[in-house]
Amino acid sequence: SRFKSSWPKLEKKLRKKLVKPTVIGIVGPTASGKSELALRLARWLRSGQAKKKYGIKGAEIVSADSRKIYRGMDIGTAKATRTERGTIPHHLVDIKNPDEEYTVAEYKRDAVRAIRKIIARGKLPIMVGGTGLYVNTVVHNLKIPKVEADPSRGTFWVFFNFRSSTGFASVGLNDTPNLISSSCNSFFFIY
After folding, report:
1. Which residues have CB under 8 Å from 191's CB, separation 6+?
2. By three-state DSSP, how is residue 129 classified?
3. E strands, the chain, where?
4. Distance of CA 120 to the CA centre of its chain
5. Which of helix, strand or coil describes residue 42?
6. Listed residue (87, 85, 137, 45) closest to 95, CA to CA
7. β-bridge pairing 124-129 and 24-27
8. CA 159 to CA 22: how far, in whole Å?
9. Opening angle at CA 113, ends 110 and 118, nearest 5
């Protein structure tokens, strides 16, 4: 096809413009294959081919999933097996017991710390998960104020639905937070 014949030229142009990313992110809805994609990508980045081509020494996964942080919550979270976590390091998985609180501010602190350590080792962090607020706090450096809990105020839930019959109504493709919320498939970003 025309696309196949033009791909080598396009790839050459893209490589000239690409710089080594700081963080790779894979986000999207539940059961869309994010974890499997992250593992495959991390294995490839560990290969000699990636090192030779791009100078990357490997990759480590930083979970951006509000459920994977809890020990024992393995069913329904698609956590990597212990064997997989032994071959590709995973961060922010099984770090809290289910009865312990873990705030988005704590997540941001821990994720940024993990990302910095991964980069210092010459590896590429892959942030993967479906908790958009976790991703946004890191990618957009959101400032999270320290606020003490006030049980007398109760809990307030807000649900947004950006979906339409086309899946992207009134959502610009450059509007990452809304695109993440409205995407029907995994969304891949590179920073």
Report:
1. 21, 22, 23, 25, 139
2. strand
3. 24-27, 59-63, 90-91, 124-129, 187-190
4. 19
5. helix
6. 85
7. parallel
8. 32
9. 125
Look at 76 and 182; give whichever has higher pLDDT: 76
| DSSP-derived 3-state class of residue 189 | strand
Q: Considering the entire predicted model, what is its pTM?
A: 0.69
Q: Which tokens is 90 given?
A: 């995973």
Confidence of residue 8 (pLDDT cuts 50, 70, 90): low
Cα separation of 41 and 60, whole Å? 10
DSSP string of 52-94? Answer: HHH----EEEEE--TTTTBTT--TTTTPPPHHHHHHS-EESSS
Residue listed under structure tokens 């920073």: 191
Structure tokens that stand for 121 in this block: 């080792």
Paired residues of 92 in beta bridges: none
Q: Which long-range contacts (CB under 8 A, 24 or more apart) does 150-154 make?
A: none
% the chain with pLDDT above 70 = 66
In the three-class reduction of DSSP (H, G, I as helix; E, B as strand; rest coil), residue 175 is classed as: coil
Residue 140, Ramachandran bin (φ over 0: left; ψ between -120 and 50: alpha; else beta): alpha
Place of tokens 């963080």: 23
